[in-house]
Every structure is written in structure tokens, then in C-alpha cells.
Write a structure and sequence with these properties.
Layout: H1 5-12, H2 15-26, H3 38-51, E1 55-60, E2 74-81, E3 84-94, E4 113-114, E5 117-119, H4 123-143, E6 148-156, H5 167-172, E7 183-186, E8 194-199, E9 201-210, H6 225-245, E10 262-270, E11 290-299, H7 305-322, E12 328-336, E13 339-340, H8 346-359, E14 364-368, H9 374-379, E15 386-388, E16 403-405, H10 406-424
Parallel strand pairs: 3-6, 3-7, 7-15, 8-14
Antiparallel strand pairs: 1-2, 2-6, 4-5, 5-16, 8-13, 9-11, 9-12, 10-11
Bound molecules: zinc ion.
Zinc ion binds near residues 94, 125, 126, 159 and 188.
Length: about 425
């Protein structure tokens, strides 16, 4: 490796700037839902990056899911072209955060600094990572004014709700095409020594069992959809869950429990709807004519989504074979293919070498149990050279008193700066 002391020092010298930038970002409450202050945070980042020579573009995802005049889905894309042609390294962060929830001991949008940590909603997921990538890029540009290629930084909307008004929208318009962008790093909070190569697949579906309404005092005149669903759940316990537990993956998924196929029942509804909290009356006696569950099936790179769906269909058929009058429907809601970047991909090798240089230990390779915006870059953008790498502890995401460590951010920024040096200087 070349003498990288200059760039490491350039990052270290920006510590105060990194803290202040992270605080500024936390103080813009970009709550999703409903999608607040998206334009404000994009304008803020635009001002910062334009002042440092980036060409910037504010892009509204007009017509995307959830985009409206009241809550427009704004994205920022900033690009810095080097002195000559070469590859483009793109840092993509989502700028939206989830609701604070209860249990905070500090102001969730105050950006308080205490004992080497910055607190706030989004501190680790993922405004700390966004700030680290900006500091890394600025430090690199200052120390290597003659670099070749380009650096892009994007701050995108709606990752927390699927990314359709953010990365998916940009990918559909060619922003992540392999002839435009060659390397992508998503600074999600996976820890400063871990490289996340991808994620498991997802299939969400609704299963509905049917019945016939009748008076609750004479259930034999109707047909109870909830009892039919009970039979489905019984069959799941007896055959499906053991089957899923037996399917293990070679993907390095963390935590350990997610190294197999999993299924969650997200919700169950049957019979009379839940009354309003202020309703004080009694329920009416009816035999439920419908019962519905939402399933969340996470699948492995070794599995095919067609098989995943047939497994459920076969289970439903087993129930039907032994229950007179049993009818049902399965409705697809959402699906994402699993993805895993090759360990030998250039951005992976470069980041692993940088982690070793900065932290004096080997990088860990992991795969996420759930999806994130890599899905759109992979599927719509068709770009395979993509990882998630950034500071912060994933378990703190979406929790009260979320924080990010300042030293961790600084170390991650050093790693990102070294990656830029490796990929963009001869
Ligand atoms: Zn995130």
C-alpha cells in the first residue's frame, strides 16, 4: 500500500467538523412516515457539497409511492469529477429516520454529545454514516487534487419504507447503471470492522381463509373462518417451521438465528374488526366469515422464490385435503430477491484492505437478515459491486437513546478515504 499517512491525518483533522455535521443532520427531523423535511435536509447537504466543488442535483421522486405535494420525496445527488477519466465511487445514504418512540432520556433531535457519543434518532441509522462518507470524500479530494474518476454522494428518501421514492427511483432513471457508477458503498450501521455483502430474500403474502357468517349462538349454521385458520397455523407448526429450520445457508448471515429460512406471522385478523378505543359497548355475536394472516418469509440465496411460494401452496393444500369446505386465497404483497456481492469484487477487496490498515484486524464479512437499498441497486441498477459499510451498532437502530460513537465514525471515515485512494489514484 502507498504511504497513506497524509489522508489518515486529513480525516483525523476533521473530527470537529464530523461531529458538527452529524449533529446538524440529526437536528433536521426527517421522520418517515410521513416523510418530513426531506427537502430541508437535501438543501442543507446541497449547500455544503456545492461549496466544496460538487455538482449537485435535487431530485424529487415525482409520482413514486408516498410522494405528494404535502410530503414530497426529495433526494440529493452530488458528484465531484476528478482531473481525468476513471471509475466512479458512489456513497449512498438514506436521509429518512423512523419515529423516536418512547423511552428517550435525551432530545431525539438535539444531537447531544456525551462521553464520545452523539445521540439522536438517526445517529447510527444512518446520519453518522452519511457524515463519515462526506468527511472521507472531502479529505480525499483535498489530499489528492489530481485524482482520476469521480466521487458521488447521494442522500435518498424512504429507505425505511422500501426505498421506492429514493434509490429505486434513481436506479430506474439510470443513476446506478454500471456504465455510470462502478463501486457503491452504503454506510449503514454494520460496524466499522464488518463488510455487509448483501441480504436474504423476502416474500410477503396474505393468506385468507373463508367461512360463512351466522349467529354466534348457532355456529353450526355458519362456517368459522378463524377455525380454518387455526388448522393452517397447526399445519405450520407441525410441518412448515421444522422444514424452514432445516434449511441452512452458506451466506454469512448475522445474527446466527437468521442463518436459516424464517417465517414470521406479522398479523392475524378474523371476525369483527377491532373496536375503536373509545367504544364502550359489547361485541356482536357473529361467526367470522373471513380470517387473514400476513406472512413474512425470509429466504436464502440457495432457495428459489418459486419453491418458496409452492411450499406455502402445498401446505394449504394439505389442510384442504382434510377439512371439508375449506377454501382460501393467497395474495402476493411484496418480494425481493436475495443478493450477495462476491468477496473478490473490487469494492470488497479494497474495503477489507482498508479495514486491516486502519483497525489492524481482519474484516468480518456478513450478510443482513433483512433487506436495505442494495436490492434496488442490484436489481434495477444491475450493479453487482456494492456493499454496506459504515459506523454504528445495528442493534441501536430504531431504539430509544440511539447513538453513534465519534471514534467509530472517524475510523470508518478513514476506511472510506483509503478506499477512495485505492480505487481512484493510480
Ligand atoms: Zn438504515
Amino acid at each position: 500500500m502507498t504511504d497513506d499517512r497524509a489522508i489518515l491525518q486529513a480525516v483525523a483533522a476533521r473530527r470537529d467538523d464530523l461531529v458538527a455535521l452529524t449533529q446538524d443532520l440529526i437536528r433536521i427531523p426527517t421522520l418517515n412516515p410521513p416523510g418530513l423535511n426531506y427537502r430541508e435536509i437535501c438543501v442543507f447537504l446541497d449547500a455544503r457539497l456545492a461549496a466544496r466543488g460538487f455538482t449537485t442535483e435535487l431530485i424529487r421522486a415525482t409520482g413514486a409511492i408516498a410522494d405528494s405535494d404535502v410530503h414530497p420525496r426529495w433526494n440529493l445527488l452530488a458528484r465531484f469529477d476528478g482531473a481525468g477519466p476513471g471509475p466512479c465511487v458512489h456513497f449512498n445514504s438514506h436521509h429518512d429516520v423512523v419515529e423516536p418512540g418512547h423511552g428517550w432520556t435525551v432530545d431525539p433531535f438535539g444531537g447531544a454529545v456525551k462521553d464520545g457519543r452523539i445521540y439522536g434518532r438517526g445517529a447510527c441509522d444512518m446520519k453518522g454514516g452519511l457524515a463519515a462518507s462526506i468527511i472521507a470524500a472531502e479529505a480525499f479530494i483535498d489530499t489528492h487534487p489530481g485524482f482520476t474518476g469521480a466521487i458521488e454522494i447521494s442522500a435518498t428518501a424512504d429507505e425505511e419504507s422500501g426505498g421506492y421514492g429514493g434509490v429505486a427511483y434513481l436506479a430506474e432513471r439510470g443513476y446506478f447503471d454500471p456504465d455510470r457508477v462502478q463501486h457503491v458503498i452504503i454506510p449503514e450501521p454494520l460496524n466499522k470492522d464488518r463488510i455487509c455483502l448483501g441480504h436474504r430474500g423476502v416474500w410477503w403474502a396474505e393468506i385468507e381463509t373463508h367461512g360463512r357468517i351466522a349467529h354466534g349462538s348457532m355456529p353450526f349454521l355458519g362456517d368459522c373462518a378463524v377455525r380454518h385458520m387455526g388448522a393452517v397455523l397447526e399445519e405450520m407448526e407441525a410441518t412448515l417451521f421444522p422444514l424452514l429450520a432445516s434449511k441452512r445457508t452458506e451466506m454469512p448471515v448475522v445474527p446466527e438465528g437468521a442463518k436459516q429460512s424464517t417465517l414470521n406471522i406479522n398479523a392475524i385478523h378474523g371476525g369483527a374488526p377491532e373496536p375503536d378505543p373509545d367504544y364502550t359497548g359489547l361485541p356482536a355475536p357473529c361467526v367470522p366469515d373471513r380470517c387473514r394472516i400476513t406472512i413474512d418469509r425470509r429466504f436464502l440465496i440457495e432457495e428459489d422464490i418459486t419453491d418458496v411460494k409452492s411450499e406455502i401452496a402445498a401446505m394449504m393444500e394439505r389442510v384442504r385435503a382434510r377439512r371439508p369446505g375449506f377454501t382460501y386465497e393467497i395474495r402476493d404483497l411484496f418480494e425481493v430477491q436475495p443478493t450477495m456481492t462476491d468477496r473478490e469484487a473490487p469494492v470488497v477487496r479494497s474495503t477489507a484492505a482498508a479495514i486491516e490498515r486502519v483497525l489492524a484486524r481482519q474484516a468480518d464479512f456478513v450478510v443482513s437478515p433483512g433487506t436495505y437499498d442494495q436490492k434496488h441497486i442490484d436489481r434495477i441498477g444491475r450493479l453487482k459491486n456494492c456493499i454496506a459499510y459504515g459506523p454504528g451498532i445495528l442493534d441501536l437502530a430504531h431504539q430509544p437513546d440511539e447513538w453513534v460513537g465519534i471514534d467509530d465514525m472517524l475510523d470508518s471515515a478513514k476506511v472510506m478515504a483509503l478506499v477512495l485512494e485505492d480505487l481512484l489514484t493510480g
